[in-house]
Amino acid sequence: MPTSDLYFSGPCMRADHERLERAFQDIAERTATGEWRELDVAWDDFAKGLELHMRFEEETFFPALASWPGAAMEIAALLEEHAEFRQRMGSLGVAIQIHEVRKDEIAELLSRLRAHAAREDRTLYRWAEEYRAQEARPGGRRIRGRSDRPREP
Length: 153
Description:
Oligomer: single chain
Order of helices and strands: HHHH
Shape: elongated
Largest sheet: none
Number of helices: 4
Strand content: under 5%
Helix content: over 70%
């Protein structure tokens, strides 16, 4: 991953979490009101956005941070959650299409997504911001050259 990608990734990924949160709130509202056509469109947009977000993390962001102490275990856990989200998104997408989705299913997924985002904020995104701070200092160090360890979650 180019240095510039890691430099900007933490803040950009946090902003994307906020965008996904707003989109999911719209889905929750449409589920509650039974606006099926609008819900289906909103779900498709959300699912595509979430997939792009996870794929960027998996292909670009996670590999760039893999050398940080403690990152490998954290990344493995986040990848497991990504797999769980993909499976759940597929099931809920079908339930939405046949108008069988329940509000509690949507609320449960939203809760899991929020917990996942908070975990990323506490760990990987914070580490990326530490990297940015180091790079901003004269003689700043690269990730592989770090002498201090990031705080464990």
